[in-house]
Sequence to fold (380 residues):
Amino acid sequence: MAAPRTASTWGAGDDSVAVFENWTAAEERAHTDRIRGYEQAKFDAGWSALNWPAEYGGRDLPISYVLAFRRTEEEFDVPRRTEMFSVTQQLVAPTIAQWGTPDQRERWVRAMLRTDLIACQLFSETEAGSDLAAVRTKAVQDADGTWTLDGHKVWTSGATVADYGVAVCRTDPTVPKHAGLTVFLVPMDAPGITVRPIRQMTGGTSFNEVYLDGVRLTDEHRLGPVGKGWPVALTVLAAERLDGGNLGLANADRAVELARNLGRELTDLERDRVADLVTRSYVQRIGNMRVAAAVVAGDDPGPEASLGKLLATDTMARTSEVARLLLGRELGADSGAWGRYAWTEHLLGAPGYRIAGGTDEIQHNIIAERVLGLPKEPRP
Ligand SMILES: Cc1cc2nc3c(=O)[nH]c(=O)nc-3n(C[C@H](O)[C@H](O)[C@H](O)COP(=O)(O)OP(=O)(O)OC[C@H]3O[C@@H](n4cnc5c(N)ncnc54)[C@H](O)[C@@H]3O)c2cc1C
Fold:
């Protein structure tokens, strides 16, 4: 068992605060296997999937147990899950549980919760990001029921290590765009799939372009009814919005520890910024607690669920600013000191979360329209 990470163990263990890892392809594979090993051990010991039914390897416990376990786990120096793991366990597995046939549920849900299989999101395209329903990747069904997929996806996180991709495809170009979509679970090693990594400003290549050229799939790979791809995709996106509320909090706490362990007095400005970060990250935490309380009570989370991701990206930006202020020139070159230069990866990665999973502007639109009910200018 890893030792708890406390103020007194500052300086020991992994000092990464990366938002997107700066790994080579071989490192990404090795780290994914290491995290998978931890997730599998946790699952087998009964500490994963706590709120899932026993048929999927869960323990049927209230969600409050999940939240309590997560809080405790954060205090330990355990392998940090990359985005792929939350996509697989928190987004894709529940979507298959909701929309899948009994066979699909049996084949994929438990395997994804245990991370025997890892999934990526084949949603965005060059002309379909915020406007996801504009996707152009085509799926055409033969007389024998087989589907052929052709198109080009982009910004796919983890495509090089994923076993399956959840692809939103156009199956009927003649109906209004939201009605002509269908979702497929695509094996990432299927003939016709080419993955090309995209270099990010963090130095890493955690996202990719994915080309689908004549990819042949049996109808068992279709998730949900033909033409119902939009509600299936919304199930994934709603889970992403709920899951996003905790983003950035662990690194905000780490920035506060950095201020405590800097080895010098802080200036008034530095103290002010650290206190501001703590205050705002508590607002984020309180919002999350209200969302969690609603989920625990079986209610729909209210407006707080829409605010969570915006507050999270704000926390991330303020965390970067605190690290920049405290470390100054130490961010310019790696002195080898624990927990110093590592912050460059936070500074370069945090802005990406203003875009991923729905941009800040799109989150504002959602709040304006669905939470505040503000009048909307009719589209031409
Ligand atoms: C780190 C990262 C990881 C990602 N991972 C994945 C992944 O795994 N799978 C996947 O499918 N996609 C992924 N994406 C893609 C992400 O979902 C899209 O980048 C995002 O939805 C925005 O789409 P876009 O890039 O096409 O920008 P656009 O939609 O073209 O937007 C461009 C700008 O216009 C603004 N804008 C657009 N429409 C409106 C509007 N109606 N009102 C106001 N402003 C508007 C946007 O806010 C933005 O500033 C990832 C992106 C990032 C940055």
User: Anything to note?
Assistant: The chain has three domains: 14-113, 119-227, 247-371. The longest helix spans residues 268-296. Residues 120-121, 123-124, 129-130, 155-157, 207, 352, 355-356, 358-359, 361-362, 365 surround flavin-adenine dinucleotide (CB under 6 Å). The longest strand covers residues 147-157.
